[in-house]
Write a structure and sequence with these properties.
CATH topology of the largest domain in chain A: Rossmann fold
Number of domains of chain B: 2
CATH topology of the largest domain in chain B: Rossmann fold
Strand order of the largest sheet of chain B: 3-6-7-2-8-1-9-10-11
Largest interface: A-B, 58 and 62 residues
Number of domains of chain A: 2
CATH class of the largest domain in chain B: Alpha Beta
Number of strands of chain B: 11
CATH architecture of the largest domain in chain B: 3-Layer(aba) Sandwich
Structural class of chain B: alpha/beta
Structural class of chain A: alpha/beta
CATH superfamily of the largest domain in chain B: P-loop containing nucleotide triphosphate hydrolases
Shape of chain A: elongated
CATH architecture of the largest domain in chain A: 3-Layer(aba) Sandwich
Order of helices and strands of chain B: EHEHEEHHEEEHEHEHEHEHHH
Shape of chain B: elongated
Distance between the termini of chain A: 10 Å
Number of strands of chain A: 11
CATH class of the largest domain in chain A: Alpha Beta
Strand content of chain B: 15-25%
Strand order of the largest sheet of chain A: 3-6-7-2-8-1-9-10-11
Strand content of chain A: 25-35%
Oligomer: heterodimer
Largest sheet of chain B: 9 strands, mixed
Number of helices of chain A: 11
Order of helices and strands of chain A: EHEHEHEEHEEHEHEHEHEHHH
Distance between the termini of chain B: 9 Å
């Protein structure tokens, strides 16, 4: 079973829920931090990292001795990553989406592919918890290929928890697509509700069962609960605002370590999801 | 004209609440919400939309079964696994590269331009605002960010306003890069947590990479004074000026519930003093 933890709005507690649930499940678990722009789960898990690898996106490499400047590559590229001006050919690797159109179209076979660094992936563990995260290179715009690379570490023999990035566009779709359940974490405020609605629309589009965790549940208003009821989204857990939890979080500590009574609640959360997914 | 872009790296640090507070303090400005993926500024500024425009993204491949000979070339060429065994294109996976369109021997693939969002020019009680809404699960967020910033700039020029305040998205990827390029300065709203420090460091590196001067303010600073000091130390090592601290205060949430800025809701509080001071520091940095 693959559970993705998503939110729409940032800072609602995705990482808190993903990490605390992962360490409370009492079985071998894989945790994939797919928020590759700002990965934070490792700060709470403190995994022992065993392997690090750099991930590249293929971009064109032009052999100018073979190029006859016919411009077919520049014409097929919809991302303006190749320009031909008289007998000068220029590539803009940061604009390339790695579609391979230029390689396929070149009649002189003058184009091969080289790599643009997207970022790195680190693989490690903490006891029986497997851990993988990606870290987007600063200045790199495209996170989905790196997210897909992190997701390639989904094992077949144990449950996987995915910490997804915020938002509703391509990075979060790359993190949620094909998962068995989306656990949405929100806060009961107007911003939380507004962004939750957008995130729910994205999850509906992907047709994935969903449930809700309301974090800082005693602040704000009742908008989120009313919406969840109307949309038939089960509220699986409520976490009240507690300065103790906020301070533990600020130090990089897991809630279940500071307040062991939460361990059973996070385990119950997982069991409820298991029951829904079947 | 100056442009201040408010970003955070980590989400939920109070970027939009603070940006709305600055909106009520600044004069002669245009507001711009560049967090097109999950735009929230309108919830505090209650914009009255005066112009509404479609946002045209890229193309998306559509295969016509009556013309398709099922040769399979498109599927072999598609690097995004967007074409099914039955030769249907999955619009969510389609990257819009058009390679299948160009190679199809039967000319069976159309490439219509998608409308993948809307953008608006509005009036608010703080002045004009340009904002947008990206469609669910759409791409091209960077392109839409660039568009709203350009339109906001135009609006400012046409109205002789000398400041643009832009609410940026979280993260360091495509929409953030589109938000900060060419800005006069960025303000990073950080929170004193291990995540806040980690994410602020990455966003500071991003600002340096694109050579945009940075400032930082720390929200909820009293949650963890050690992390607050660590953020300020990191800022000074990276030539980022620390422009102030704001204590943890439930009035941020209370004012949001009322649809007001924190200064409108709690005008006489300690918070006002902190935010006023931060705004004076920002004005000095921007040389307004």
């Amino acid at each position: 079973m693959i559970i993705s933890v998503a939110s729409g709005k940032g800072g609602t507690g995705k990482t808190t829920v993903a990490t605390n649930m992962a360490v409370s499940m009492g079985s071998d678990v894989q945790l994939l931090d797919c928020d590759v722009e700002e990965p934070n789960a490792h700060l709470f898990i403190n995994p022992v990292m065993e392997q690090k690898k750099t991930v590249y996106a293929p971009v064109p490499d032009i052999d100018e001795t073979k190029c006859n400047f016919c411009k077919k590559c520049a014409q097929i590229c919809r991302f303006k990553a190749i320009a031909v001006i008289n007998e000068i050919i220029l590539t803009f690797p940061e604009l390339c989406h790695s579609c391979g159109g230029c390689v396929a179209v070149c009649p002189e076979k003058a184009i091969t592919e080289t790599g643009r660094e997207l970022g790195v992936i680190e693989i490690g563990h903490r006891n029986n918890l497997g851990f993988v995260h990606g870290r987007l290179r600063i200045g790199e715009a495209m996170s989905p290929p790196l997210i897909r690379e992190v997701r390639s570490y989904t094992p077949s023999d144990r449950p996987t928890i995915i910490d997804a990035p915020p938002g509703t566009s391509c990075p979060v779709i790359a993190a949620m697509r094909g998962t068995d359940f989306v656990l949405m974490v929100t806060e009961p405020t107007p911003f939380g509700l507004h962004d939750l609605k957008l995130a729910v629309e994205a999850v509906k589009l992907l047709d994935i069962p969903r449930g809700l965790v309301i974090n800082r549940s005693d602040i704000g208003d009742d908008g989120v609960r009313a919406y969840a009821k109307k949309e038939n989204i089960p509220v699986l857990m409520e976490i009240p605002f507690d300065r103790g939890i906020a301070e533990a979080y600020s130090k990089g500590r897991l809630v279940v370590e500071e307040m062991p009574e939460w361990k059973e609640r996070f385990r119950t959360l997982y069991l409820q999801i298991q029951e829904i997914v079947g | 004209m100056k442009e201040l872009v408010v970003i955070s790296g980590k989400g939920g640090t109070g970027k939009t609440s603070l940006m709305a507070a600055f909106a009520s303090l600044a004069e002669n400005k245009v507001l711009c919400d560049a967090d097109v993926d999950a735009a929230d500024l309108h919830l505090l500024t209650a914009p009255v939309i005066i112009e509404r425009h479609d946002f045209q993204g890229g193309g998306v491949a559509v295969i016509h079964p009556d013309r398709c000979s099922a040769c399979g070339l498109c599927r072999d060429l598609c690097r995004f696994n967007a074409i099914s065994d039955a030769f249907m294109v999955d619009p969510i996976e389609c990257e819009g590269c058009g390679v299948c369109v160009d190679f199809c021997p039967e000319d069976a693939i159309d490439f219509p331009i998608k409308t993948c969002g809307e953008w608006f020019v509005s009036n608010t009680r703080f002045g004009p605002m340009v904002h947008a809404r990206l469609g669910i699960a759409e791409e091209n967020s960077g392109k839409l960010v660039t568009l709203v910033r350009q339109e906001a700039k135009k609006l400012a020029e046409n109205n002789q306003l000398n400041l643009l305040i832009t609410d940026g998205p979280p993260g360091v990827g495509c929409p953030v890069i589109a938000s900060i390029g060419g800005a006069s300065a960025i303000l990073i709203v950080a929170e004193p947590t291990v995540s806040g420090l980690h994410d602020m460091e990455r966003v500071a590196q991003l600002a340096a990479h694109f050579k945009v001067p940075g400032m930082v303010c720390i929200n909820k600073f009293d949650l963890n004074l050690d992390q607050t000091s660590a953020i300020e130390k990191l800022a000074s090592e990276n030539n980022i000026s620390a422009v102030g601290r704001i204590p943890f205060d439930p009035v941020f949430t209370e004012s949001m519930v009322k649809g007001q800025t924190v200064l409108e809701y709690a005008g006489n509080s300690e918070i006002r003093h902190n935010i006023d001071k931060i705004w004076v520091n920002i004005r000095n940095q921007l040389v307004l």
